[in-house]
Amino acid sequence: MAKEDAQEIVFTQSRLSTFEKCERLEYWQYRAGGSKDQPGSGIDVIKTPTYFVEGEFGHYALKHWYRNAKIGGRMLRKNMIDRIESMLEDMELTPEEDNEYRIKLAAMVGACHAYKGHYKPDFQKYEFVHVEEPFEVQLAGVTFKGIIDLIVKDKDSGMVGFWEHKFLSQFSASDYACLPINLQQLVYTLGFESIMKKAPKFYMWNVIMKSKLRRKGMKPKKDGSMPVPEPLVEFENRVQKEYMDNPEKMFRRPPPRLVSTKATETMVKDVLAHIENWKAFAKKNSVPPMRHASCIGMYGTACPFANACAEKMLGHAQGWNAPACRGLYRRKEHLHPELAKNREDDNEYADEK
Ligand code: SF4
What is the pTM of this model? Predict the structure, then answer.
């Protein structure tokens, strides 16, 4: 088995939710890349989807903002730009792709700067008990690991609960209605208990809408010539202004949801059933069947592993490393890189404190 898996089976809520969407997708991301007898740590798409990069960057910025609550928050532009450079360095991008990521991340910097101004009162209203706190719980016979964005105490009511930051393109009343059945909230409720030794009173989504503004000067003029593109820093400032002018539209904090013990107990039973299914595939080291209904439309776009599945359907032994998939996928070094990455960047602001 993969290195981290030698002693125990490690899951995250994201891994389980991937398995629930498509068993084959969980196989690609967490078990592929090994041999017939030995599972690997999964494979990654070489070009990390932009929504993932945006979310990772936003979490990085807000982590440092709340971790430095005692000194009024800390989120320096220089550090954000350095972070963008190191994120892009890790990816193999064409110049066009590099440009696409820089535009998206410049918009995120603008959003984060506006966040600082808009939510400055947070430091008076709340006590931030833990920021990006890792947890580990035993659930249905496997170890679940995760990181809670914020454990928060409301200074007025004295209630303690948790927040999750969400960087979204859309968020509606029906999304809010689904929060009580959201797997992440349910698993993280157990995570909260393991950290705080008591159940949370509430959980809340701290929603930051993504800007729909576009960088100017990216389309050819009528005569076919290309205009000079808007400097990224100007685009960033324009986005920041959009958030500052429309905070009620761009920043949303729907009312917190109260935690139900009954809901958590029911979720544990459901998780048990899914884990038993997973164990049956893992025991035989088998490749699960495709879930065709999930292939198109996942995350609002086609599944990034569609090419791997298509090659496997055509008879290639592993699919993902077929000649037709060259340059699309690579073996993962860690089973759960998101957990390792969080620890690595903990000290980036150390010299500024
Ligand atoms: S292409 Fe379809 S079957 Fe294959 S991993 Fe993606 S969702 Fe699953």
Answer: 0.88
